[in-house]
Amino acid sequence: MQTDAQQFPGFCRDCLTGQPAGMRRCRACGSPRLLYHAELYQLTLAHIDCDAFYASVEKRDNPELADKPVIIGGGKRGVVSTCCYIARIHGVRSAMPMFKALEACPQAIVIKPDMEKYVRVGRQVRMLMQELTPLVQPLSIDEAFLELKGTERLHHDPPARTLAKFARRIETEIGITISVGLSYCKFLAKVASDLQKPRGFSVIGAAEALDFLKERPVTMIWGVGKAFATTLERDGIRSIGQLQTMEETDLMKRYGTMGQRLYRLSRGQDERTVDINGEAKSVSSETTFNDDLCDYDDLVTHLRRLSEQVAHRLRKADIAGQTVVLKLKTADFKSRTRNRRLDSPTRLADRIFRTGMQLLDKETDGTKFRLIGIGVSDLSNPDLADPPDLVDAQATRRAAAEAAMNTLRDKFGKATVETGYTFGKGGRK
């Protein structure tokens, strides 16, 4: 007996009924969400992205918000973490200063981020992904690459139909929506997942890759940000099609290793595979102040609290980091990033904080800052983290005190124990 995949060139994303060629609506349920593609049943690499993730979770938990514009972010001096699609229609965008977002959409409902809740929902989505395939590479809390090659026997369906079932399951069991991009390589799978948001399912095959990319802007290529796009435009390069006419050696002479990336990705050439160890490369936390700060001791208060948040996330994820990264943003929105590599990995708030203090000390020259952040990169397992300090006995005692504080906080809540730093005491004094 033939399967739908063998008998029909397409299927309905809502009821999964196979569809003959040329149908505009599902022959079973009447839905217009039909999926056709010449390579539909051959492609196996997918990128899955949750739609407006934070806002979707908040709307799920409060149905009264369903038809209202929602912004997830801080106070008036903060920035937009994300927003729902209704707010986007009004011109609100992620990373936009909050005051500009509220000018664009004054009726928006602003909700402070609840990261613990979002992480919890993100893990639920991740667990369901891993039921599809062991080859899952998370990129962030709400998106991942999946390789489904060889899963046909397990799911009794080709990857395209398995992914459509998965999208329905996420909506039914978790109450949010996702968009799926299906292709033969990572670059185009990620591009595809963004084409029809929300609740999208887009396919880009190998046969169409060159033509599909030809008219697209160079900013679609991974790694081409605003600054590099300006450089390319100055050289007369605006579209990917222009890159397709250039030689690899010429692009590398102009732009180094980035030139090689431009050459290959402009032609849809991407040999990267799904890496199950491709977790987040850093863990960080930041805050935007209500008023600009320039005093070292005032900044240290925030630095300590953020360091404790980072340490808490490292412990929960059972990882450690070896490079401490300090982030500052001046009153005129210019960013400063400073980092220092430690002699061993850490997940102690004390080590993160004290390294951050040293980096901060060199930056407090009267400059006013609107944001401070601290984080760690070079992530690894915690087995070699935080060995006893044989030189500084106080550091060992502080580590023991921090462990005791963490035990109390885990049992009675985060506010059970505070340090003097978080009350604005300490710093240089």
UniProtKB/TrEMBL annotation:
Family annotation (Pfam families): IMS, IMS_C, IMS_HHH_1
GO CC annotations, alphabetized: cytosol
Any one GO BP annotation for this protein: SOS response
Subcellular localization: Cytoplasm
Cofactor: Mg(2+)
Active site: 143
Record's catalysed reaction(s): DNA(n) + a 2'-deoxyribonucleoside 5'-triphosphate = DNA(n+1) + diphosphate
GO MF: damaged DNA binding; DNA-directed DNA polymerase activity; magnesium ion binding
Substrate discrimination, annotated site positions: 54
Record family assignment: Belongs to the DNA polymerase type-Y family.
Subunit: Monomer.
Function: Poorly processive, error-prone DNA polymerase involved in untargeted mutagenesis. Copies undamaged DNA at stalled replication forks, which arise in vivo from mismatched or misaligned primer ends. These misaligned primers can be extended by PolIV. Exhibits no 3'-5' exonuclease (proofreading) activity. May be involved in translesional synthesis, in conjunction with the beta clamp from PolIII.
Protein name: DNA polymerase IV
